[in-house]
Design goal:
single chain; alpha/beta; Glutaredoxin; 2 domains; two-stranded antiparallel sheet; 37% helix
Length: 228
C-alpha cells in the first residue's frame, strides 16, 4: 500500500475528540421549552386569580343573604306600587301617626339616618322652613329617621324641628318603603337620604335617593308629578 493510501485510511479511523459536536443533536422536548413553561405558568396565574375573584363574589352573596336590609338585598318601592301601612308615635308630641289616618292626603316621607347625620337634620330644617311650598301643593310632610325615640326628640328640639316625625331604630318602616341602601349604602337597616311621595289613593308617585345629602325644597317639588 502506498504511503498516501495509508494516511487516508488512518484519517478515516481517527476517533472524534471528546466533547466534539455531533451532527445528530438531541432536540429539547417541546414540553420543556422556555415558551411552553412560561405559557403554563401564565395559565396557572390566571386560573388562580379567577378562582379568588369567584370566591370573593360568593362570600359577598352569602353576606347579602345574612343581611337582607342591606342595599343590595332591599327592593326599592317602585313608582306605581301601593305604599305599605304602618303606625307609630311621634316622639316629640306623643301623637299617633298612622298611615290609615293619612289616607286621602298626599304625603311626602323623608327618610334619613337622623341625628348622626348633620346634613340630614339640616335638610329637615329646610323642609320645615319651606312648609308653605308643600302646603301650596297639597303635600303633608312626615320625617322618618333611624334614631331611638328619645334621641330623635332631643335632636328635634336642638334643631328646632316641629314637623311630624317617627323614630325607626330597627328600620322596619324604612325597609317597608324600600328606603335602605340605594346610592348611600349606609349599612343594614339604615335609611338613605330618600324621599317617597304617596298620593291620596296610597300609590307611590315618586321615590328617589339623594347621595349628595341635600336638595332644595323648590328643586324637589319640580321633580314631582302634578298632584291633585
Amino acid at each position: 500500500m502506498s504511503k498516501s493510501a495509508r494516511n487516508k485510511s488512518v484519517a478515516r479511523t481517527v476517533a472524534r475528540p471528546v466533547g466534539a459536536p455531533t451532527t445528530n443533536r438531541t432536540r429539547t422536548p417541546a414540553s420543556h421549552s422556555p415558551y411552553v413553561v412560561k405559557h403554563h405558568r401564565t395559565w396557572i396565574y390566571w386560573t388562580t386569580g379567577a378562582l379568588v375573584i369567584a370566591g370573593l363574589l360568593f362570600v359577598s352573596f352569602l353576606s347579602d343573604l345574612k343581611h337582607p336590609g342591606a342595599s343590595s338585598g332591599t327592593s326599592t318601592l317602585a313608582v306605581g306600587s301601593r305604599a305599605p301601612q304602618f303606625a307609630g308615635t311621634d316622639p316629640l308630641t306623643g301623637q299617633l301617626i298612622d298611615s290609615k289616618d293619612l289616607a286621602g292626603k298626599n304625603v311626602l316621607y323623608y327618610f334619613s339616618a337622623g341625628s348622626t347625620c348633620q346634613a340630614c337634620m339640616t335638610q329637615a330644617q329646610a323642609l320645615q322652613r319651606d312648609a308653605s311650598q308643600l302646603t301650596r301643593d297639597h303635600i303633608t310632610l312626615v320625617m322618618v329617621t333611624n334614631d331611638s325615640a328619645d334621641t330623635l326628640a332631643a335632636s328635634a328640639r336642638s334643631y328646632g324641628l316641629t314637623l311630624p316625625m317617627l323614630a325607626d331604630p330597627d328600620g322596619s318602616i324604612t325597609n317597608r318603603f324600600g328606603a335602605v341602601g340605594g346610592g348611600m349604602d349606609m349599612g343594614p337597616n339604615t335609611a338613605d337620604h330618600s324621599f317617597v311621595l304617596v298620593d291620596r289613593r296610597g300609590i307611590v308617585r315618586f321615590h328617589e335617593d339623594f347621595p349628595s345629602m341635600w336638595i332644595s325644597t323648590s328643586a324637589l317639588l319640580h321633580r314631582f308629578p302634578t298632584m291633585a
